């Protein structure tokens, strides 16, 4: 169901790469949130491995978005879940909001808005991130610390959805 067919649904995106170990945590959390929700039409889900301009394009037409991703800042213990609106994101050097071959999501959103693209405000884009160090190792499994963080991240997403509805 496209977002035009419903009354302004909330877009929930799991970001990452499911074959790069802990980088797949965004996909796992998003799928578990989807499995827990039985409300059809109020939420739209996607699993993506992109950032910058491509991610900005995917946000077109939504007023509220939740991005779920691994974050490698070194500022938090491995497996800690952090939640913040995108406008408070200060570290753009890691995660899918930034890329060496693209621009940061914040910059991409600014460019999109300058072109009058219908995009959510930065304060209406929420990030639920799990601090993870092992995001470049080939594996389809999450490490134990990241796996233990999944239910915590799921609960944070569900709490955000309750607040945003």
Overall form: globular
CATH topology: Rossmann fold
| Termini gap | 19 Å
Work out the helix count: 4
How do the strands line up in the largest sheet? Answer: 2-1-3-5-4
Low-confidence stretches: 1-6, 91-101
CATH architecture: 3-Layer(aba) Sandwich
The secondary-structure element order is EHEHEEHEH
The rounded Rg comes to 15 Å
Sheet with most strands: 5 strands, mixed
- For the record, the count of structural domains works out to 1
Average of the residue pLDDT scores: 85
Write up what this structure looks like.
This protein has 165 residues and is of the alpha/beta class. It has one domain: HybD-like (Rossmann fold, 3-Layer(aba) Sandwich), CATH 3.40.50.1450. Helix content is 30%, strand content 19%. It contains 4 helices and 5 strands, in the order βαβαββαβα. It has a 5-stranded mixed β-sheet, with helices on one face. Helix 1 (25-36) crosses helix 4 and helix 2 crosses helix 3 (105-114). The chain starts with 9 loop residues before the first strand and ends with a helix.
